[in-house]
Specification:
Blueprint (H helix, E strand, L loop, with lengths): L2 H4 L2 H8 L11 H13 L9 H9 L11
Helix pairs in contact: 2-3
Length: 69
C-alpha cells in the first residue's frame, strides 16, 4: 500500500495510535481517519480512490476488523 507513505507523518501517527503495523495489518477505520484528515486539510487529491480501497480489502492488505483470539 504505497499510498500510506504519501500521508504526512503526523496523520499516520494519529491514525495508527499504539497499533503495531509490523505485527498487524492496518484497519479500515485507520485508513478512514487519514482520509478524513486529508480532506479537512483540503488535500483532496491525496486520497485513494474507491477502487483502490476495495482492492486493498479484497487483496488482504488491510483488515476491516481485527478479531482477538
Amino acid at each position: 500500500m504505497d499510498w500510506w507513505n504519501t500521508v504526512p507523518a503526523d496523520i499516520r501517527n494519529k491514525a495508527k495510535g499504539n497499533d503495531d503495523w509490523t505485527k498487524y495489518k492496518p484497519l479500515l477505520n485507520q485508513i478512514n481517519y487519514a482520509m478524513v484528515a486529508l480532506h479537512l486539510q483540503g488535500n483532496h487529491s491525496a486520497k485513494p480512490s474507491a477502487e483502490e480501497l476495495l482492492s486493498w480489502i479484497k487483496n488482504g492488505e488491510i483488515d476491516v476488523v481485527r478479531v482477538s483470539k
